[in-house]
């Protein structure tokens, strides 16, 4: 006879709403109304946030799919779209002007994908670590597939 498992501890439901409120507060306080390109620091922070959110949704997807296939499929789609957004943020980071020169990379360097070195390389390391996890979970077709909103259950 299997031994009963102890009950799960109460979840701390206030962390995700706190993170959402912090992002809203940051946008209100720090983003000027005038047109201005996002800085590399901002793009790096947003990339870190998306990769972290991707990890959270990955955990929810794994736990939910075994219980509710339909909900799991929707969460899997969200997880894939979040990674696609992280891919675009990573590309935007490398296209953004450098803080020291105010210039972006040359078109030749951008096309060649030349690494920029530390500290700029930290966004690449985070992205490569996340990409390794994504490659184990999805197919290249899933990542390149245009979003139709249709999920098959």
Kindly describe this structure.
The protein is mostly helical and 153 residues long. It has a domain at 38-144. Helix content is 63%, strand content 0%. The chain contains six helices and no strands. Helix 3 runs antiparallel to helix 5 (121-137). The protein is globular and about 65 Å long. The mean pLDDT is 81.
Keywords:
single chain, 153 residues, mainly alpha, 6 helices
DSSP summary, beta strand count: 0
- Measure the end-to-end span: 35 Å
Low-confidence region ranges: none
The overall pLDDT, averaged over residues, is 81
Portion in strands: under 5%
Number of distinct helices: 6
Which term fits the overall shape?
globular
In short:
The chain is mostly helical and 153 residues long.
Layout of helices and strands, plus pairs?
Blueprint: H1 15-30, H2 40-65, H3 69-95, H4 107-112, H5 121-137, H6 140-144
